[in-house]
Amino acid sequence: MTTILDWFRTGGPIMYFILLTGLAGLAIFLERVWVIVVVARERPATLGERVIQLVREGQPDEALSMCVASRAAVPDMGVVVLRATSREEDDLQTVADAASLAVIPRLTRRLQYLPMLANVATLLGLFGTIYGLREAFASVALASAAERAGRLAGGIAVALNATGFGLLVAIPLTVAHAYLVSQAEQTIEQVDEFAVRLINALVGRADVRLGHR
User: Fold this and answer.
1) Which sign, positive or negative, has the C-alpha torsion 180, 182, 184, 187?
2) How far apart (Å, rounded) are the C-alpha atoms in residues 193 and 139?
3) Is there a contact between 96 and 199 (Cβ–Cβ < 8 Å)?
């Protein structure tokens, strides 16, 4: 732990800004994991199948109650479609399209900040490099011959530590963004498939599976 703290302090004041950037990215990542991976995908397959089964058995009110009781993205779509006053296919599709405008943004909200913070961390690391090299050469210019080597090494350490810490923050944020985007896309596919199958159930058409994995 002492070695890590010494390494952090050696990186200069820029390290604190990079740390704040990383903490902001971590907070966004954890919040999005809770929304996208935990809440939005709460038993989507089994719940969706049960809702469609109830609709085909002529029990739309029970299906609606089941959807209302869940916080997941799939039943959110079911709530809107099942509450539609019309049972015409075109009207139901219009309702489903409108519901997508409300359901999908809740999944992708704030995801764009992760790559932005990754870029900020990288740029702060580069700024730390410039800051460290500037301090190194300024110290060398003012130092005596006996002190120049030590001050030059200290300035280079600031530059390298800041650059390394910036990359250490940026790389996980980039990977986290890619992971969350893939999870959100899977959930959006589930919502779209459920909407199509639910509309088919409401209009009495045979069920069609879209091959979602």
Assistant:
1) negative
2) 65
3) yes
In 3D space, the residue among 7, 11, 8 whose CA is nearest the CA of residue 158 turns out to be 11
- The Cα 206–Cα 213 span in angstroms is 20
212 has pLDDT over 50: no
Helix (H) / strand (E) element for 158: namely helix 145-203
**Strand, helix or coil at 213?**
coil
- CB 40 within 8 Å of CB 107: yes
Find how far residue 25's CA is from the centre of its chain. 9
**Which SS3 state, helix, strand or coil, does residue 203 take?**
helix
**Per-residue DSSP letter, 207:** P
Give domain limits for the chain: 12-203
Mean pLDDT of 56-62: 91
Structure tokens at 123: 């740029």
| Lookup: tokens for 36 | 């996208």
Average pLDDT, the chain: 85
Write out the two tokens for 194. Answer: 């459920």
pTM: 0.81
12 CB-near residues (< 8 Å, 6+ apart):
128, 131, 132, 135, 158, 161, 162
Residues making up the chain, counted from first to last:
213
